Amino acid sequence: MPIVIGGVLGLLIGSFLNVVVWRVPRGESVAHPPSSCPRCGQRIRPWDNVPVLSWLVLRGRCRDCRHSISVRYPLVEAGTGLAFAMVGWWCGWSWALPAFWFLAAVSIALALIDLDVQRLPDAIVLPSWCAAAVLLVVASWNPGGDALWGALSRAALGALAVGGSYFLIFLVYPRGMGFGDVKLAVLLGLYLGWIGWSAVVVGWFAGFLIGGVIGVALLVTRRAGRRTALPFGPWMLLGAWLGLVAGPELVAAYLRLVGL
Length: 260
Prior knowledge:
mainly alpha; single chain
């Protein structure tokens, strides 16, 4: 059931994320005006706004002017549905599930915005600190079982550790890292710390490793130069999710490999 409900919820959230990704970097409201065709201005009818299905039925075109609608819209909806389903499978029915569904939605929105405009908007990142803190308190409450209050203090320390390390890098080499990355690191540190210190280590290291591999690949294929500014947010997010899902297992495997 968490997988099915997560998939359906993710499709609906994905439709909203398309609005967020387009409007937030432009300083526009995500609530008003209602979505409309960018060419003819006709408002999108409710039955033409069903995630994925409407795009397929309309064959990727506006019902009124037949203007092409980017395939990115259904891909974001389907991708969010898949991400929510996978989080549902990973968490199961638990009080932590809303917290990680929230992180999945924020991750998709921020990754796409950073790829588009190389910014991580404060309008998303800063409110997410508060939302994540509240949701992790709920996740730690765990009525009927053992409360996880110790995880909250670890989450706070994780935010300080990850955010602080990124801030030091920003001070030493500001051209290589934006301050938006520092703010995002605080959010990711909260979640990584809540899971455990193994998650913090893997999530921190994996972000730099993945970003470095992507950067080298772009240089080798000549799709970027030494002075090309590249978004780092998507790789931070991907590395953090690797730490969340597999951090303890990866650290344990490494320790076995080195004989510790």
